[in-house]
Amino acid sequence: MNFETLGLHQAILKAVSDSGYTEPTPVQLQAIPAALGGSDLMVSSQTGSGKTAAFMLPALHRFASETQVSNGKTPNQEKQAARAKGERARFKPAQPKMLVLTPTRELALQVTNATEVYGKHMRRVKVAAILGGMPYPKQLQLLSGNPEILVATPGRLIDHMDSGKIDFSQLQMLVLDEADRMLDMGFIDDIEKIVAATPEARQTMLFSATLDGVVGNMAKRITRDPVVVRIATASTKHENISQCVHFVDDLSHKNKLLDHLLRDSSIDQAMVFTATKRDADMIADRLNIAGFSAAALHGDMHQGARNRTLNSLRRGHVKILVATDVAARGLDVPTITHVVNYDLPKFAEDYVHRIGRTGRAGRNGLAISLVNHAEGQNVKRIERFTKQLIPVNVIEGLEPKKSPASRGARKSDDWKPGDKRRSNAQKPSQRTFANPGPQAKKSGFKHGRSTESARRAFASN
Ligand code: AMP
Fold first, then answer.
1. 423 lines ligand 1 (CB under 6 A)
2. How far is CA 60 from CA 38, 144, 367, in A?
3. Residue 235 maps to a domain
4. Probe ligand 1: pick from 49, 52, 116, 207, max atoms within 8 Å of CB?
5. Beta-bridge partner residues of 228
6. Residue whose C-alpha is closest to residue 331's, from 356, 305, 366
């Protein structure tokens, strides 16, 4: 099945083809026809599955197919016309037709960017991101353009609703993206309030890693006869991501290992996850001093600084992003080849989200966790959650001196190549383990013993 057979508007098909997508992903295959038919959706799909296009392509199709019936004046134009007549300009709230709610600012910006890409051949569809941390005057300016699509984080959206800047009476489509994460972050009351302000006749599409428990109950409350699509849950195997654990004796051993791992010439870009914001800053500083191009990303940074860091990462100016869990979900940078858990996450589910920052858009990835001997139980918890064993690897010359519990090293023989989706963004000259490029020879890099099998698997696709 290709995108043409889904019956999408020509302008959208062109944008999809420009993006290098040749066929719909499984979530798109199931969600797009249902959404085009006007059904509500409850979708569980893993991060990186192509879910943004699954809700945005049918929404844009609807806008592209609508005949233009408005009087054509934006609130801004009406203000100018009023001024020209010498009348006092009357404030008119924005009346969006579609609202996408996301848990984080990063995801909101990503959805906004994807919407611009998917809608680039359409004549008039405006999208605006309404997020915390952005100056109010700038957002009021965006709202005064009366965008058809708002992508928002709940808190800031409610500020604008309370001050009468947004009127949802014309809303046709409501999307809750990463709904489970929004609930985890305590947005339940905000979501209820926002949903209550929208028309009952809206189409509602809810996307979540899981549809169980609280999020499932909420999904049932706010949707009507939804089509339920279950692609995978958060505990799904990331089959295209090779995983391993390195046991560490102490902080100095951990830092030496990190330094060694990051000198691997097969790294295009890497993310290092830390437990604290302070550590993210400290490690980024340390890596920069050691000659890496690294930057930190965490919740204490202003939105402007966060955006600049992410842009530098996307442009390839930053090679190693050291981040807290603020970046564990949603962040989509296909050139991230490696994820390193400098600290293990608190919850097993977060591990799945963190490692999902690599292996994007059908590529392969490598996820490495640095673990104290005392944290063996936490690794087991992750293994139980993901239903996968994580092999223990050792680097020659950097072996732990203490005994790594009773696990023993395992081979990563359950790894299988991921699906064969190809992105045209893939660089032909991209270095792989098989073809390490000139740097590897220069640095005298030695492969670790059992890491070798993971590397071979990684390079083989
Ligand atoms: P998402 O889950 O929406 O964050 O998308 C994950 C990544 O998959 C993004 O880099 C998209 O550009 C990419 N993507 C989405 N749909 C397709 C497709 N049909 N074929 C190839 N890549 C896709």
1. yes
2. 13, 21, 36
3. no
4. 52
5. 42
6. 356
Question: Is the distance from the beta carbon of residue 361 to the nearest atom of ligand 1 less than 6 Å?
Answer: yes
Residue after which a domain boundary falls, among 200, 230, 260: 230
Which atom of ligand 1 has the smallest separation from the CA of 330?
A: 4
pLDDT digit string, tens, across residues 113-130: 999 999 999 987 999 999
pLDDT reported for residue 67: 59
24 within ligand 1 shell (Cβ under 6 A): yes
Tens of pLDDT, residues 296-308: 999 889 888 988 9
Domain range for 57 is: 3-66+77-230
Give all strands of the β-sheet with 149-152 in edge-to-edge order: 127-130, 149-152, 98-101, 173-176, 203-208, 41-44, 227-230
**How many domains does the chain divide into?**
2
CATH number at residue 113: 3.40.50.300
57-97: pLDDT as tens digits: 999 999 998 855 455 565 566 667 777 777 766 668 999 99
Do 251 and 324 lie in one domain? The reply is yes
Q: Whose CA is nearest to atom 15 of ligand 1?
A: 50
> pLDDT under 70 in the chain at which residues?
47, 67-79, 88-91, 232-237, 361-362, 404-461
- What pTM value is reported for the model? 0.64
Determine if ligand 1 sits within 6 Å of the CB of residue 53: yes
